Amino acid sequence: MQQKLFILALTFCLIAVLVFAVGVYLLLSTRTPDPVYTELPAGAPATSTYQVVAENAYIAVATPAGDILISDPRQRESTVQMGDGLYALTTLANETSTTFGVIFNEADGSFAVGLEAEPLGETRRQAEQYLLSLLGVPEAELCQLNVYVGTTVYVNAFYSGKNLGLSFCPGSVQLP
């Protein structure tokens, strides 16, 4: 009789432990999803990492003139993550036939454009058209974003190491 009582008590304890473990698992695995917005909420902080999700994903990039909403380059199928927060849009494993490379840094919302062929003026124009199309912004807003345009000494020693800028933005270097 004591043996039956012991087995019954042991079975009850095992069932209680199992129910408790399942409850803890469900409690810890249930997470409130991040809110999904179709537009920036009023009073949204000016930060380059504030993400707005809609049919096509957008992010707001902070600039001195205010936030600019751009199409999220990280969401493109052809984008390759290079490392923590760096994305190759046209280079590295993302083999394309372009004469320029574009990298996006999500930490500050900046872009680095590498001109990889002469004539630099034409290559820069192609890169500019790519960025305008990719981000879905007009030239004036693209000028407000942090975009570095450069080349290497192997392409053009005179212009290497300088920020050539975007041709339609103030302060850009005129290229042949």
Describe the overall structure.
- It is a single chain.
- It is built from three helices and eight strands; from the N terminus they run H-E-E-E-E-E-E-E-H-H-E.
- The protein has helices at residues 2-29, 120-135, 139-144, and strands spanning 51-52, 58-61, 68-71, 80-83, 86-88, 100-105, 110-115, 147-151.
- Residues 30-55 have low confidence and may be disordered.
- The protein has 176 residues and is an alpha+beta fold.
- The protein has two domains: 1-31; 73-176, no CATH class.
- A hairpin with a 4-residue loop joins strand 6 (100-105) and strand 7 (110-115).
Secondary structure: elements and pairs:
Elements: H1 2-29, E1 51-52, E2 58-61, E3 68-71, E4 80-83, E5 86-88, E6 100-105, E7 110-115, H2 120-135, H3 139-144, E8 147-151
Parallel strand pairs: 7-8
Antiparallel strand pairs: 1-2, 2-3, 4-5, 5-6, 6-7
